[in-house]
Amino acid sequence: MAKSKGNSATAKTRGEAIGVITKGSLVEGLEMKLDSAQNVEDMKAGKFVVIEGDKNDFFSMVTDMRLDANNQEVLLHPPGREDDILRKVLAGTSTYNIVSLRPMLMMPKGAVVDDGPRPVKAIPSHFSEVQEAMEHDVANIFGKEGDPEGRYFSIGNPLDMDTQVCLDMIRFAERSNGIFGKTGTGKSFLTRLALCGLIHYDKAVNLIFDMHNEYGFKAMKENGSSSTFVKGLKQLFGERVAIFSLDPQSTRARGVQADHEVYISYDQITVEDIAPLQDELKLNPTAVESAYLVYAIYKERWLRTLLALEGPDVEEFSREIGAHAGSLVALHRKLKRLENFPFMVSKLTDGDVVDRIMEYLDKGINVVLEFGQQTSMLCYLLVANIIARRIHEMYVKKSERFYATQRTEDQPRQLMITIEEAHKFLNPTAAKQTIFGTIAREMRKYYVSLLVVDQRPSSIDDEVLSQIGTRITALLNDEKDIQAVLTGVSGTDGLRSVLASLDSKQQALILGHAVPMPVVVKTRDYDTQFYKDMGCLDDLPEPERKAKIDKGTVALYGDN
Amino acid sequence: MTRVKTVKERKPSPLSRFMPDEMAKRDGAGAERTYVGEVVESSTTELIAEARELHGGPSFGQFIRIGADLPVLGIIYNVFTHSIEPNRRPTAYGKTEEELRLEQPQIFELLRTEFQALIIGYLDGGAPVQILPPQPVRIHSFVHLCTDKEVRAFTGNDDYLRSILNTYKVPTDELLIAVLRHTLRAHEHSRDYLVRMGKELSRLVGDDYDRLSSVIRRVAN
């Protein structure tokens, strides 16, 4: 697993002993009696500890704690406030603290480094010592940033520790992932961080449907009363990120020049793109059938033909094609809304935008699609669906070609599509109609995966949720949402309390494919140091900067 | 060598059987001359010693060391003064001790102070051993008060508390308190030490929270 584990095995130092294991089971987790010298307030849910067994070290997470007393008398006649000595005497003897631990991984003692930690199949014996996890323990498990493969990307620190927790970016890229959290808990921030990791280490090329214009260029950092701006992906990665805009005016108004403006012609919209909009457009079920009737005759020109009609003509048209008049009239009326979108054009002047996006993605350039002022859910659903469907089709073709030729140069780049408000695409009804449901299910077969960003995971289809590889979760309060996030994860009892007790800022629980064990992190600061780590050129001195740009150009386009 | 307070406060009396200050001056304060008593009855678990001077026994709860080859350690649990003659009780005179010493000095010669000590261990080559000595101390051995250093060495762990709790003849709690106060003084009134001993005691007395809290409170005061 973790290959960059260094020489920790040779110079093993142990953390401070904080207690001993007194009881527990493999299924329900272990209980530790806290050492009387320790303060129970230091044992936070999500803290990371190591249980030193006879043969294995068990890496565990604090999930719960409890105050206990062996004697009812003590509780009935508690020592007075001034009775400091008696309080101290009682602490750890008559009154004691029990901390529940959930063993996550075990590592045989003196194991060869490459063995790596394994899932827990045993429990430590009575009175095994519990220690605070040390930096090398964490590095052992989560790897360390800066390995030659560029595999590990530090996403933050464990609680109360000064060491890195890294995501395995290769594993992260190969499956669909989810970023969840209540509004205002830093979802966009976490997403931006994950995207930075993917782009920086070049593990996947990204297509980001940026509904709120947060990723491309500057984004506002919520900071209590005062707001500051942080750098967007374009600023950090320059040439490796292209901004596409649905609303160039809005993009320009924010002081950004979009690399490409997005227009969609009526011919690009298929009936399949309309079907998922049933909710937003309030279409009745027969409307889609009527649309198919129009499509059967006019093929890709169906929408253009339909919208070209004026009100009274629709009924006549319905008779011509044998559709139900009322249904077609309703469909026509509702689809008229599409004409209001400024990006809808009858004829494309600048080529097909999807081809353009594909071109960029093929070159390894990440695409941020900004929606500008077009923040209606209808618009977002429509555009994301049209583009993602086409991109997916192309990727299926590319992958099939690769399977046929089996040449490495034909291997498609891993693509990750970021969607916000994902439950709109992936709720149980929509998931069956939208392309995103398919992508989430088919997963990596075609080299396309999703990065699902959502505040309401309980609305997402179970089948999709269970396919999500890595979940990065900020605070969630709703029991249903917590339940949903933990769908398909074993041993979740302890995690539930951890999840509900996260801070509302800069804290997240990460679990799943890209981390060997669930872990709570204080997320990395998105600051100048981070910009520098990501190789942002802005703050570098001129010669160094130029050298870097040249190197990048060569890497991208070749020597000449 | 610390001497019991009462010794210093009292005026020297020519008829006293023990005159420590005078003797110390004459003998040049030799180590063997600084004893506080002499063993007159001895067994494996306890001993009775006669104090060197009247009313000059060590205090309740103090640590004593007896003998030289294999010094035995004990804790004073009872001090008493009585008549030499078993059948004769002192008579009440209605006068102060001062007046009596001037008028009838001979009656003090007929009294003696004795003390009983609980054996709690011994020193083997200077190292404290918290088990009963293989042989009881010899009669006529001198009894010395332990120095603070010896007390500290012997009370580093809680075994002496267990020895005290296991005796049934004495007012255990009172003895515990007295002993703890002495050891606490030897440990320079360290709160950490008291807390540590308190925790051990809590284990030893089991569920008895009232007892524990009363002992701790009285020691700490």
Can you tell me about this structure?
The complex is a heterodimer of chains A (560) and B (221). Chain A has 560 residues and is α/β, with parallel strands linked by helices. Chain A folds into 4 domains: 17-141; 167-263 and 350-526, Rossmann fold, CATH 3.40.50.300; 266-340; 528-560, no CATH class. Chain A is built from 23 helices and 23 strands. Chain A is elongated and about 90 Å long. The two termini of chain A are 40 Å apart. Residues 1-11 of chain A have low confidence and may be disordered. Chain B has one domain. In chain B, 36% of the residues lie in helices and 22% in strands. Chain B has helices at 5-9, 20-27, 97-103, 106-109, 148-154, 159-166, 172-186, 191-204, 209-220; strands at residues 37-42, 46-51, 63-66, 72-83, 111-124, 127-129, 142-145. In chain B, strands 1-2-5-4-3-7 form a 6-stranded antiparallel beta barrel. In chain B, β3 (63-66) and β4 (72-83) form a beta hairpin. In chain B, α7 crosses α9. Chain B is globular and about 55 Å long. The chains are: A alpha/beta (560), B alpha+beta (221). Chains A and B meet through α2 of A and α8 and α9 of B.
Task: Furnish the topology, listing elements before pairings.
The complex is a heterodimer of chains A (about 550) and B (about 220).
Chain A: E1 17-25, E2 29-34, E3 48-52, E4 56-69, H1 72-76, H2 84-90, E5 95-108, E6 118-119, E7 129-132, H3 135-142, E8 152-158, E9 165-168, H4 169-174, E10 177-180, H5 187-200, E11 205-210, E12 219-221, E13 228-230, H6 233-237, E14 241-245, H7 248-253, E15 260-261, E16 264-265, H8 271-274, H9 278-281, H10 285-298, H11 302-308, H12 313-321, H13 325-335, E17 344-345, H14 353-362, E18 366-370, H15 377-405, E19 415-419, H16 423-426, H17 430-433, H18 435-442, E20 448-454, H19 462-466, E21 470-473, H20 479-485, H21 493-500, E22 507-512, E23 519-523, H22 528-533, H23 542-557
Parallel strand pairs in A: 10-20, 10-21, 11-18, 11-19, 14-15, 14-18, 16-17, 19-20
Antiparallel strand pairs in A: 1-2, 1-7, 2-5, 3-4, 3-7, 4-5, 5-6, 8-9, 8-23, 12-13, 21-22, 22-23
Helix pairs in contact in A: 10-11, 10-13, 12-13, 14-15
Chain B: H1 5-9, H2 20-27, E1 37-42, E2 46-51, E3 63-66, E4 72-83, H3 97-103, H4 106-109, E5 111-124, E6 127-129, E7 142-145, H5 148-154, H6 159-166, H7 172-186, H8 191-204, H9 209-220
Antiparallel strand pairs in B: 1-2, 1-7, 2-5, 3-4, 3-7, 4-5, 5-6
